[in-house]
Design brief:
Rossmann fold, 2 domains, membrane, alpha/beta, 14% strand, globular, single chain
C-alpha cells in the first residue's frame, strides 16, 4: 500500500463514527438512510447468507455487481441492466448504492436471486468483507464512482472492476490531479473505462485511466414509461394554459425563479394598469386577457431531491402562490398558480405534461441535470449557462434544435414561455427533440457486449 493510500485508509477508518452519526441524522428526514447501516461497514445479516450462490470458479454463475451511487446513476444502470440480462440470461445482480433515493429506485430492478446492499465504506476491511461475501464475477461502477480502496481491493481479489458510462469534467480532473497520489493508481488499476464522450476520454486518460472505448451516454437508450407519458399528455391537453416546467430544480433555483417571475409580473401589471388609466373600464374579456398576460402559462416545478419537496412548497406559499402537489392529485392536476411535482420515478409523466422544460442545475453554477430523458419524451429544453456535467449532450442538443441556451433565469423564463405559447414553434422543437434522442442510441448494447467479453475471458 502506497503512503498516500495508507494515510487515506487511516482517515476513512477513523471517520466511521462520524459516518454513523451522519446517517442517523439524515435518517430523521429520509428514513432510508437508517436501513441496514451495518452493510456500509461490510457487516451482513444471515438472510443474505441464505441467498449466496456457491458456484465454484464459473464466472457466469456468479454475481454481476453494479454500483449506482444515487438516483441518476441507478436510472442509467437500469438501461444497462436490461441489455445485460439479454446478453447473460439468468445472471444474478448484486446492486449497491450510496444514497437512499438510489436504493429505493434500485429495488424496482431486482429479480429473484438478486441482492441489493449498500456500497461498502472505503476502508480496506469493509471492502475486503464485501468482496469475500459476494465474490462477484465483475464490478461495474457507474459514471464517476472511483474509490481508492475499492479499486485496490478488487485487484487483490482478482475481480475486474470497470467504469461504465464514464464522465469526468474539467473541475473533477483538476481535483483528481491535486490528489494524484491517490487518484492515479485508482484510475489506472481499473480493468476498463468506457467513456461517454471523446472529451471525457481525454480527461480520464490524463489521470491514468485505460479508456477502452467511447460508447456514448447510456441515458440516450432510455425508453420513457409509455403509460406515464400518455397520462402526462392527456393532462396537458386538458390544461387551460400551456405548461412550463422547472425540471429537477436545485437549491436556490426556485427562489431565483420566483424573483425573476415577480419582476416580470410586476412589469406586466404596471403596463396593464397604465393601459386601464388611458381607457374606459375594461370588459370581462379584457380582464381575462390581462390575466393571461400576467400569468400566461401554467408553471410546474419538480425539485431534484425529494427531501426538498416540503421546503419548496413552503417557499411558494410564502410568496403568496397557490400550490397543487402531485401527491394530492386523484384525477387531473388541481387548479393552482404552481403545480409541484413531489413524486419519484415519474419524470416521463412530468415531461409529457410540460410543453417546455427549463433544466434545473443549469441556472445556478451546479453543472446541470440530464436533458436526455426530456428529449426522449419529445419535450424541448431551455438550458441555463451552467451545463458542465453534461457539456457534450447540451452542445449536441442545442446544435440539433432540441434545446436552446440562455444566459440567465430571466431570459430562460421568457424563452420557455414564448416557445410554449407558439404552437407551431413548439411542435417543431418537440419533433427535433425526439429525433435527437433517437439519433444517439446504442451505448447500452456496446457496453453490455464489452462486459460480456471481460466476464467470458475469466
Amino acid at each position: 500500500m502506497n503512503p498516500a493510500r495508507a494515510l487515506y485508509s487511516v482517515v476513512t477508518w477513523g471517520a466511521q463514527p462520524l459516518l454513523r452519526r451522519k446517517l442517523r441524522r439524515r435518517a430523521k428526514a429520509e428514513p432510508g438512510y437508517g436501513v441496514a447501516i451495518g452493510e456500509r461497514f461490510g457487516r451482513y445479516p444471515a438472510p443474505i447468507d441464505s441467498l449466496m450462490m456457491h458456484s465454484g470458479s464459473d464466472p457466469l454463475g456468479r454475481f454481476v455487481w453494479i454500483h449506482a451511487v444515487s438516483l441518476g446513476e441507478t436510472r442509467a444502470a437500469a438501461i444497462l441492466l436490461a441489455a445485460l440480462r439479454e446478453q447473460l440470461p439468468g445472471m444474478r445482480l448484486l446492486l449497491t448504492h450510496g444514497t437512499a433515493t438510489g436504493r429505493a429506485e434500485g429495488e424496482k430492478l431486482l429479480q429473484p436471486g438478486d441482492v441489493q446492499v449498500w456500497q461498502p465504506w472505503d476502508t480496506p476491511g469493509a471492502v475486503s468483507r464485501f468482496l469475500r461475501k459476494f465474490r462477484p464475477a465483475i464490478g461495474i461502477l457507474m459514471e464517476t464512482e472511483v474509490w481508492p480502496n475499492l479499486v485496490a481491493g478488487c485487484r487483490a481479489h482478482r475481480v475486474p472492476l470497470v467504469l461504465a458510462n464514464a464522465r469526468l469534467n474539467a473541475k473533477s480532473l483538476r481535483n483528481a490531479q491535486r490528489l494524484a497520489a491517490l487518484a492515479r493508481p485508482a484510475y489506472s488499476n481499473l480493468a476498463a473505462v468506457w467513456a461517454q464522450t471523446e472529451d471525457d476520454a481525454q480527461r480520464l486518460r490524463a489521470i491514468g485511466a485505460r479508456v477502452a472505448g467511447v460508447f456514448g451516454n447510456l441515458k440516450f437508450d432510455v425508453v420513457p414509461d409509455a403509460a406515464q407519458l400518455a397520462q402526462g399528455r392527456s393532462w396537458r391537453a386538458q390544461a387551460q394554459r400551456p405548461v412550463v416546467m422547472l425540471a429537477s430544480s436545485r437549491e436556490g433555483e426556485e427562489a431565483l425563479w420566483l424573483e425573476k417571475l415577480r419582476s416580470k409580473t410586476a412589469s406586466a401589471s404596471v403596463q396593464l394598469a397604465q393601459a386601464a388609466i388611458n381607457s374606459e373600464a375594461p370588459s370581462t374579456e379584457d380582464r381575462e386577457d390581462a390575466a393571461r398576460t400576467v400569468h400566461p402559462v401554467q408553471w410546474l416545478i419538480v425539485p431534484r431531491h425529494p427531501q426538498r419537496f416540503d421546503e419548496v412548497h413552503q417557499l411558494l406559499l410564502q410568496a403568496g402562490l397557490t400550490v397543487s402537489r402531485r401527491s394530492t392529485w386523484t384525477g387531473a392536476p388541481g387548479a393552482a398558480d404552481v403545480w409541484l411535482g413531489d413524486s419519484l420515478g415519474e419524470m416521463a409523466l412530468y415531461y409529457g405534461l410540460a410543453h417546455v422544460a427549463m433544466l434545473g442545475g443549469s441556472f445556478a453554477p451546479l453543472g446541470g441535470q440530464n436533458l436526455i430523458e426530456a428529449a426522449a419524451c419529445g419535450c424541448p429544453v431551455v438550458l441555463g449557462p451552467h451545463t458542465f456535467n453534461f457539456a457534450e449532450a447540451a452542445e449536441l442538443a442545442c446544435a440539433a434544435g432540441a434545446a436552446q441556451r440562455v444566459g440567465d433565469m430571466a431570459e430562460g423564463i421568457a424563452q420557455a414561455t414564448g416557445l410554449a405559447l407558439d404552437p407551431a414553434a413548439h411542435a417543431a422543437a418537440s419533433e427535433r427533440a425526439s429525433r435527437f434522442s433517437t439519433a444517439h442510441r446504442g451505448a447500452a448494447q456496446a457496453t453490455a457486449q464489452a462486459v460480456l467479453g471481460l466476464v467470458q475471458r475469466r
